[in-house]
Amino acid sequence: MKKNPSSILRRTRIITVGGGKGGVGKSIIASGLAGEIGALGRNVILVDGDLSGANLHLTMGIRYPERTLNDFMLGIYSEVEDVVLPTPLQNVSLISGASGIYELANPRFMHKQKLVASLLRLKADYLIIDVGAGSDEDNTDFFSLSEQGITVITNEPTSVENAYGFLKNGIIRKMLSMFSARQDIRDIIMRYANPRRHGFHRLAQIADRIAEIDKQAGKEVKVMLMRYHPRIVVNMVKEAGDVTVHESFRQIARKYLDIEMTYLGYVMYDDTVKKSIRQLRPLHEFPDSPAVGCLKAVARNILALEEV
User: Fold this and answer.
1) Which of 41, 30, 52 is nearest to 2 (CA)?
2) What is the mean pLDDT of the segment spanning 279-301?
3) Looking at domain 13-160+231-306, which of 3.40.50.2300, 3.30.470.20, 3.40.50.300, 3.40.50.620 is its CATH number?
4) What is the spatial distance between Cα 229 and Cα 67, in angstroms, rounded to a whole number?
5) 231: number of CA atoms within 13 Å, CB side?
6) Distance CA 270, CA 91 (A)
7) Rounded to two decimals, what is the model's pTM?
8) Where are the beta strands (DSSP E) in 81-169?
């Protein structure tokens, strides 16, 4: 790994990459953005946040990681920095994920607080976390480490539906964490989170219901929604019409989740992606790939938003 001589930014920016559904290309987007942001001179640590099926190392051309999150969580290494691995990409390091150990994949046993606190202490310009598939609380909690996490979608109804559920579950989790000591408010959140049972179709309506018993608490929920701005990348684009899915998804998020999302760009469907995985080569090593060109544009858009 080639290292940048000095850190450009004064604080670590956290970028989480999720989407709820497997198969939408989150890992390729996460590793591809890490490579492009690193190529722009920023120090990047890429983290595999999939606690049940880690495979991000393969996108970096690493077949067998020497150290993983398993080793840190099991106490073999006392600091998470000790499991950071070099990669072939300029300015990019990797923390390979934990897999094959039930206790680490199950939220009832995993020491999540320790892991999150350790990751947040890492020093880099950017910390990019590839979140696992599915809308369970581990994944939504990882995604919520950033107020501007990237939601990856494709122009498929199942992708859009799963991404919506992923974001909604994450926001509900954020609400619950805001009021960990207020069981009365937590009861309201859980009671009205299911629109089929109580007729609530917008998250702001939950804030209104909370405000009936605590005006300040209701205001805090609305402020949280106002400040939460996840981002969108449309992946596997085959034709121009595929890109427009971001517009409808943003409208759905605005109408039902009461949040504003930012569109970062799209990544074209490209057979080079499969080729890079088969050959165990980072996608960044295929500079003529249409997908790489798209990732360059998305990376520049991220830096433009983060470094104003």
Assistant:
1) 41
2) 95
3) 3.40.50.300
4) 34
5) 21
6) 25
7) 0.90
8) 85-86, 92-95, 126-131, 150-153
